[in-house]
Structures are given as structure tokens and as C-alpha cells.
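user: can you give me the structure for this one chain? C-alpha cells are fine.
assistant: on it. calling the predictor now.
[tool input]
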Amino acid sequence: MNENITKRNELFATKVIEGLTSRNMHGYYAANRRAALDIALSLIPEGSTVTMGGGMSVHEIGLVDTLKTGNYNFIDRDKAEDKRAAMLMAYDADVFLSSVNAMTEDGVLINIDGNANRVSAIAQGPKKVVFIVGMNKICKDADSAMKRARNVAAPINAQRFGLKTPCSKTGACMDCKSPDTICCQFLITRFSRHADRLHVILVNDNLGF
């Protein structure tokens, strides 16, 4: 990444981490994907039961492959015969992995979900949640973060999954009630009541959608 952008991201991440700290969440800055992987692994003790939502960012830093081949009990819902059972196991996991659809400069996390397994696990259940967040997902405020989630992340994910939603054709949210809509549940995480539960790794890279 360009040296000037890297310097800006490093300084900007300090402000975002201050916001997360004020919300009883932990924030970390990773200069690159390898550093993000190292930070994530430092938060996941060997032997832990780990699972995740559908976060592409988690894959992009190599975390999923590392957990699958390491000394961890990784629950892979994509390979499970009973996907519902695999998703329910997430609520009792030691660590749940995710990204965000968007977040604000002062540390508010915005997530939209279709099946709600991801947002419900973020809200309650797993002992620890580790978010992998590219700096491209940080927005000025809650309004702009919600707009990003609905008009950038949601259409791309609808296209990725081959869903027949208006946004998959137009590239922008149409506030639809399509049977395929993935904008069923909206989760705004503005504070963590439980200390040491929510951990956000900010990565100096463009990750996910």
C-alpha cells in the first residue's frame, strides 16, 4: 500500500481505537495482513473452539486456513451436514470470527444479516468475538456507515450469493422486501457490557466488501 496512505491509516486508527476503548471494546492496528493474522492468533488460545459468520476478511488474512490446520476445534458450517446445528454451536464457542459491514470513526459497529446467525452471535453467546476490519470500512458516522452497509456491502454480497434481489441488479439498496433479501436484521453495536469480549483488528488494507 502507498506509504502516504499507510501513514494516514496508522494515525487514523489511533482515533478509531480510542472510540472502541470508550465503548468497552478492544482495538488493535495491523500494518498488513500478516500482522493482522498474528494479532488474531494471539487472541485465540490453542485448543479453542472457533467458528465464524460469513466474513470474507477473515479468509483474506489467512486466518481460516491457519485455524483449520492448527491445534484448534474449528467448526466449519460450510462443510457440516447439518448447517443449522453447526450455526447453533456458535453460541457456545470460545471464539466467534467476523468482520463488519461498516463502522464509524468513533467505534460503532454496523452489521446487516439475512439469516441472523452472524448478528445474533455477535450480540450474545460466544465468549469472545474477533472482528477483522479493513480500513476501507470505516465511515464518518452512523448514518454514513449504514448507507455503506446497505449500498455497498449488501449489493455485492447479494451478487456473490446469486440472490434475486433488486440491489443485485442495480448495485444499490432499493429497500426491498424480496424473498431473497439479506437485509433482514440490522445490528448496531455501540457498547460492550462485557469486558474483554469484543476485539476489533483494524487492518491497513482493503478487505471484504
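assistant: here you go. The radius of gyration is 16 Å. Residues 3-22 form the longest helix (20 residues).
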